[in-house]
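# nightly structure sweep
# worker-07 picked up a monomer target from the shared queue
# config: single-sequence mode, recycle default, output format = structure tokens
# input follows
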Amino acid sequence: LALYQTEGVTAVIEDAVSAPHTASSSLIIRSDSANNLGYRGQGQTVAVLDTGVNRTHPDLNGKIVSEACYSTTDPGSLSTTLCPNGSSSQTGTGAANPPANFVAGYDHGTHVAGIVAGVAPQANIIAIQVFSRYSDVAGSPFSFQTPCANSGRPSPCTFSYASDQILGLQRVYALRNSYNIAAVNMSLGGGAYSSNC
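# output follows
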């Protein structure tokens, strides 16, 4: 209640978590028709807020123009940062790199960036990693409450806090004068709707 009564506060929301999620892509936006008309993303940049992007992937070579990471460590929810430098944020080359130790779902961002490269082959990509690593603790009485266990995903797994997504979007906004940003892709969430309509 006190927060709502504070001057300048317009909303208070739960810092809920979202899973990586891609229902469909090229068919919905009819990218084949756009490509046939000569629209191939030339001069455009797409920001991908996801689980990070492997900048050395052959399909993405030279396309990643900026990188950042926003990831939360919260012992109470058993989450830890996935930023390569071990802190809650990082910018610069390598900031959106996948972790050295595989985490289920962490290849999702590279997959999404690959879709962008296929849909708009001449566009650049801003890669922003906004996910955290969750681990169920064997034998813990709280393991049933962790996102991995609740989602039926193996532990460790990845989820994104709304607050990290907001930091990622603020980074995109900060880059608006440096790149011609045509779109922001956030393929996350899932479970709320049974179709895309």
